[in-house]
Amino acid sequence: MDFGTINPILLVASLMVSATPILLAAIGELVTEKSGVLNLGVEGMMITGAVVGFAVAVNTGSPLLGFAAAALASALLSLSFGFLTQYLLSNQVATGLGLTLVGLGLSSLIGKPYEGMKAPSLADLHIPVLGDIPVIGPMLFQHDIMVYVSIAMIAAVWAVLKFTRAGLILRAVGESHDAAHALGYKVVHIRMMAIAFGGACSGLGGAYLSLVRVPQWTEGMTAGAGWIALAIVVFASWKPWRVLIGAYLFGGVTVLQLNLQAAGTSLPVEYLSMSPYLITILVLVVISARGYHGAPASLGRAFHASH
Amino acid sequence: MNRRTLLASAALALGLAGTAIAQDKTKVGFIFVGPVGDGGWTYEHNQGRLAVEEHFGDAVETVFQESVPEGADSERAMTQMALGGADIIFTTSFGYMDPTINVASKFPNVKFEHATGYKRADNVSTYSARFYEGRAIQGHIAGKMTKTNKIGYIASFPIPEVIRGINSAYLHAKKVNPDVEFSVVWAYTWFDPAKEADAANALIEQGADVILQHTDSTAPQAAAEKAGNVITFGQASDMGEYAPLPRVSSIIDDWAPYYIARVQAVKDGTWESTDTWDGIGPGMVGIGEISDAVPAEVKAEALAMKDAIASGEYHPFTGPIKKQDGSDWLAEGETADDGTLAGMDFYVEGLTGDIPN
Predict the structure, then answer these.
(1) How confident is the model over B275-299, as pLDDT tens digits?
(2) What are the C-alpha distances in Å from A175 to residues A30, A33, A35, A281, A296?
């Protein structure tokens, strides 16, 4: 096989960029699911974030404001899901799917005037010292700030879940909402916060698509990224660092197969194209074959204090 | 026998009822593969739909469904549209071919029009545009303008239409620049901006300085613009917002005249199953303005080629042309027949890589 024209530095650099949207969305969904809520509306929240982030960035000229607005907008949207599922006790699966549909429709409505426009670009950081290391520097340390934010987010979620009281409470709510309630924790409030966090992260992921990775607004541009983020949470068996591995693996295989094709390798492209999905399925099979998959025990179950 | 007569008269009655409604208000349905705001393929079909509305005013009603996946789901969408009283349904992607035939057999009184396919029935017409004519012009400009001699091609699915485009572009690039090489990336999607952008980036990183695309979004244009020093061509739609650079020209699909003519035929009761394949000459394929980034003499040559193709004086597939495996395809001066073109499943000599199945 000829890897001749593939530059490994650029390959790693572009896989990090390619993985960032699903990484952000997946870590948000992980927190939501850890609290026992299954929000299938990631796709809808991502695309809402993509359009709002793009619109705000275009109007203000500041991509960072765009990201902030995207996080806010998607968090608000996710709270509508939270209100329906936590207070009105609607079915989480159906409401989540509804949220996706709402997000897709809403975004194409908001996005109409922004088609074909260009967004202000987010400058790449050149981290001093680290960025100057040959090979590793351009590979890892010359990205835009959101790539590092996404990795920091993984670390933060991991640390909070593992070492803090807040993390413990969140996990308690997700494992057994009745027990957490009996201990005096406000299950619904905690879940609402987790839902909003998940929404904000999805919004950031969507905005990363429209502001950095593509960068433009096109209707329906998430094209299924939200569903992949959901799969990665399961793939990661609800562990933050594994989300990072899953997202990079997925992003990596996607970018690698396109690069291999561009380099004219003789590998049949059908297999290359399906490889990210095959690997995901394989890992899911391995995980479930081991029996323990780490899903929060109360995942997807409705809670009402009277029950 | 009795039963058959009964059925026949029932069908006749239905048919009459159908015509009665048609005289009233013709309902025109569209099935789109992407969102109408994709800025490319579906956008232009939707422009055609809007032109139908404008042309006929209150005499028609149009309905459409966007982002319909190719395959079983599209059958449901078409059935729903037919049950909803559509008189004619345009299904605008290659992958709707078998679903269109299936649904059409259940609704003999509804007319179906399938874009870019080759299966017809009494109530199913096919129509397509000779995009490969535009690809010839793109190939010419690309061959002249590339500095790295590497041209990247983002292909969607390995179907004849896409393969024709690759062959046509390659032949004409090679003609003006014998050193040119094509890298073809199969994206296996018509519309996925992130993946299209990744594909464009992969090609650019490997040295391509011209990107041709056969996918529907403007994402590769944005990627090329970001990279700088890369030229692109608008696909299906003008994508003029990326002119003068990276987008130096485009292939524009103009479906409006065809849609208006076909809807008129339904209204007049003269609709028949036909196979339409029009190119630059009749105006179904337009060449977007060639920007100033293209040197004047290259632009003049490209325009001359456009005129020659439009008048029928020049055919983009004119021999001698060999197939990739070295066997002869067209002899000196011979032009390709439509049958071979419609089913094209081979690369021409000089292209590297295999066509996936």
Answers:
(1) 999 999 888 999 999 999 999 999 9
(2) 14, 10, 8, 26, 5
Nearest-angstrom CA–CA distance, A216 and B246 = 15
In angstroms, the CA B195 to CA A261 distance is 13
* Domain regions of chain B by residue span: 2-129+255-278, 131-253+284-342
Tens of pLDDT, residues B247-281 = 999 999 999 999 999 999 999 999 999 999 999 98
Domain that holds residue A249: 8-289
Q: Looking at the domain assignment, is residue A2 inside a domain?
A: no
Q: Looking at the complex, report in whole angstroms how far the Cα of residue B355 sits from the nearest Cα belonging to chain A.
A: 9
Interatomic CA distance for residues A7 and A270, integer angstroms: 23
Q: What ipTM was reported for this prediction?
A: 0.81
pLDDT score recorded for residue B293:
92
Query: And the tokens for A136?
Result: 């590793």
Note whether residue A305 is domain-resident.
no
A21 domain-assigned:
yes
pTM score of the predicted model: 0.83
Spell out the CATH class of B131-253+284-342. Answer: alpha beta
- Confidence at residue B3, expressed as pLDDT on a 0 to 100 scale: 52
Tokens of A96: 């989540």
- DSSP calls for A28-58: HHHHHHHTT---TTHHHHHHHHHHHHHHHHH
How do beta strands B231-234 and B210-213 pair?
parallel
Taking a C-beta distance cutoff of 8 angstroms, is the pair A108, B38 a contact?
Answer: no
Percentage of chain A lying above the pLDDT 90 cut: 57
| Contact by Cβ (8 Å): B149, B208 | no
Give the C-alpha separation, A158 to A152, whole Å.
Answer: 10
- DSSP H helices, chain A, are 8-34, 42-60, 63-82, 92-111, 136-140, 145-163, 165-175, 177-182, 187-208, 225-235, 240-262, 269-289
Q: Assign a CATH topology to domain B2-129+255-278.
A: Rossmann fold (3.40.50)
DSSP state of A169: H
User: Which chain B residues are within 8 Å of A116, Cβ to Cβ?
Assistant: 39, 218, 241
DSSP 8-state secondary structure symbol assigned to residue A87: I
Q: How far is A190 from chain B (nearest CA, A)?
A: 34
Judge: B354–A266 Cβ closer than 8 Å, yes or no: yes
CA distance B323 to A249: 39
* Residue B246: cis peptide before it, omega within 30 degrees of 0: yes
Residue A182's SS3 state is helix
A residues 37-66 near B, CB within 8 Å?
none
Look up residue B27 and give its DSSP letter: E
User: pLDDT of A269-291, one tens digit each?
Assistant: 777 767 777 877 887 788 778 77
What angle is formed at CA B271 by the lines to CA B269 and CA B274, rounded to 5 degrees? 170
Contact at 8 Å (CB) between B214 and B244?
no
Residues in chain B closer than 8 A to A115 (CB atoms): 37, 39
Domains held by chain A: number: 1
Q: Please indicate whether the domains covering B2-129+255-278 and B131-253+284-342 agree at the CATH topology level.
A: yes
Tens-place pLDDT, residues A50-100? 999 999 999 999 999 999 999 999 999 999 999 999 999 999 999 999 999
CATH code, domain with A156: 1.10.3470
